[in-house]
Write a structure and sequence with these properties.
- Belongs to the ABC transporter superfamily.
- The chain has helices at about 50-60, 80-90, 110-115, 125-130, 145-160, 175-195; strands at about 10-20, 25-35, 40-45, 65-70, 75, 95, 165-170, 195-200, 215-220, 220-225.
- The strands form 2 sheets. It has a 6-stranded mixed β-sheet with strand order 6-7-8-3-9-10, with helices on both faces. Strands 2-1-4-5 form a 4-stranded antiparallel β-sheet, covered by helices on one side.
- It is α/β, with parallel strands linked by helices.
- It starts with 7 loop residues before the first strand and ends in a 12-residue tail after the last strand.
- The protein has one domain: P-loop containing nucleotide triphosphate hydrolases (Rossmann fold).
Amino acid sequence: MSSATKTTVFRTVDLTKTYQMGEVEVRALRGVNLELVESEFVVLLGASGSGKSTLLNILGGLDTPTSGQVFYLDTDLTASDDRELTRYRRDHVGFVFQFYNLIPSLTARENIELITEIAVSPIDAMDALEIVGLRERANHFPAQLSGGEQQRVAIARAIAKNPQVLLCDEPTGALDVHTGIVVLEAIARINRELGTTTAVITHNASIAQMADRVIALSDGQIASVEMNVSKVNASELQW
């Protein structure tokens, strides 16, 4: 199915976000218009302060815009109240952040089962660990896992709810190159095998080589949108 016939998962219309920092007004987003379609792997690329994290948080229902609209399928998220946004995050969105946020007293499997117990149509915790290559580490606690393994558990936790969307904020930011590649391979596998619409934000232009599409942000605006005609696997990245 070509991108022209795929369902639009996210659509933003003149999205703005302004923060008040004391007497200073910070414009994090300045009229952003974009669309993300089903099953695509998108990299949101930009320097620190470009607005990419703010945009990701709004798409994920963690933040609300100052003005403009954001649609998830046919739902106007900007018209949703707190309860509706909570339900949206729970049922439809998986989040992966730079820091793993695992509960130290729970095993890898138990960390994931916290999510599967409240999800509508979850993936079995062991199956989620299998997807990220950590089934044999299911009964290990976070302190017994490397940084890369902890991040992969966090990814397994995010996908265990079987979300339509996976939003990743600098998922390799705290990892070395080799470990980062392993983590990126896990994210790419989820996108490829589960068809999960995936958006990864990064300041690392090398990661953009994995994407179907690269959206560059600068000063709260979209600077460019490029289709990636030479998409590579994580192991082939030129760092």
